[in-house]
Amino acid sequence: MRKQLYIKTWGCQMNSHKTEGIAGLLAQFGYELCDDINGADVVIFNTCAVREKAEQKVYGKLGELLQRKRKSRFLLGVGGCMAQVQKEKLLRRYPEIDFLFGTTDINKLPLLISRCNGQAADKKDRVSISQPCRIEDLPYRRRSNFQAMVTITEGCSHFCSFCIVPYAKGLMRSRSPKEIIDEVTEITTQGYKEVLLLGQNVDAYGRDNPEYGDFAGLLSQVSKVPIPRIRFISSHPRDMTISVLEEMASAANICEHLHLPCQSGSDRILTAMNRMYTRAQFLALITNAREIIPRLNITTDLIVGYPTESEDDFSLTLSLLEEARFGSVFVAKYSPRPGTMSANLPDDVPTEVKEERLQKVLRRQRQIAREEKEKLLAQEAAVLVEGMNRQEGTLFGRMRDYRTVLFPGDESLIGEIITVVIEESSTGSLKGRTLQPLKTPERRGKKGSRCEERGSR
């Protein structure tokens, strides 16, 4: 009988992809993924340390689980960013944890679990935290049969003052183009409709190894693979180039969505964050991007309440929303991350002020997003159907520009690319209807590859 494995994941899409690697690797050693934590033989927490809020969620779940662990027999492992940067704290606070593994130690899991089952007396034999310096080759067990993630870089070398990533994930390193193209080709032959190219900073691809070329060159190679949709995340404004934007515009299967974290609208705060660009440079970049790719949807990340952020600084962030007209914004309250440069600064913006600023950003951005979505009414859009919204009783999917659309339809359409007419704009998702008969738009892409029709009409 196969043993049961439960994995709880926090954090970014890279972490979600790592979880697919954990599941695939342990499947080779007789473990079957399960949805019920109560029936698991092994429980793994794949953690995030980017925000304090994510950490607190992990600590809360650990506290709950350890109450049950004292009464039942299962192994508990903690991995990911928290394990990488807080090993001593985790082991001191929760000695019941059976094993720990770092961000590039997933391949050690079978050995660690074996040592736990063998009752290894020395706790250090059940801990593997290596210096992140490579990209692991893992047998991914993908959760979707039509959307796949493919890692192209790991780590980051920029050392923004607030960011834990270089410490948890290591310096930026790239996979070879051949490995990437081979993996994208493989998932395409398996029938996948969309690939998401992953990295903490994909625009820096190849800078650690000039033989690999740059990100624009990689995109050009990937776009020749006849997969209908190509996305990538995440980008750094400092490293985004015109050649990348031009490649996005010329390749039929690269989607018109760009996630470009700005973090603040204030030059003073951007300098303090060590972001290495100005507000004006950021706005010029997105202006160029929209000129090159007219239907481009730009999304961003913002931090409110960074140390010394004044009302004037915050007002510049609000005005940035007006000028940039983002499709959506992921906003977070600043929280100091131990070991980062900003952790040495006084966290001097009161919690209630941070919350007030966050709510102001959300309110204004909701209105901007609604106004931008209203421009899409009555247009036809190619939509990849992702699932069923049980609460609404409708299907949902994403347009090429990453906006979500709800529409009536049968579950048999999940995983298909269909044409939807946009009929309604709401605060959250767009709503529409499928064309009858169903249309699956395609066009000829580079090198004769068959690709989904670009954009709405």
Kindly state the number of beta strands. Answer: 21
Average residue pLDDT = 94
List the domain count as a whole number.
Answer: 3
Structural class: alpha/beta
Radius of gyration: 23 Å
* Uncertain residue ranges: 443-453
Straight-line distance between termini: 54 Å
Task: Describe this protein's structure.
The model is unreliable at 443-453 (pLDDT under 50). The longest helix is centred in the C-terminal third of the chain and has 24 residues, at 351-374. Strands 2-1-3-4-5-6 form a six-stranded parallel β-sheet, with helices on both faces. Strands 15-16-17-19-18 form a five-stranded mixed barrel. The relative contact order is 0.08. The protein folds into three domains: 3-128, 3-Layer(aba) Sandwich (Rossmann fold); 147-373, tm_1862 like domain (pyruvate-formate lyase- activating enzyme); 380-452, OB fold (Dihydrolipoamide Acetyltransferase, E2P). The N and C termini lie far apart (54 Å). Helix 8 (215-223) runs parallel beside helix 9 (242-250). The protein is 32% helix and 23% strand. The protein is globular and about 65 Å long. With 457 residues, it is of the alpha/beta class.
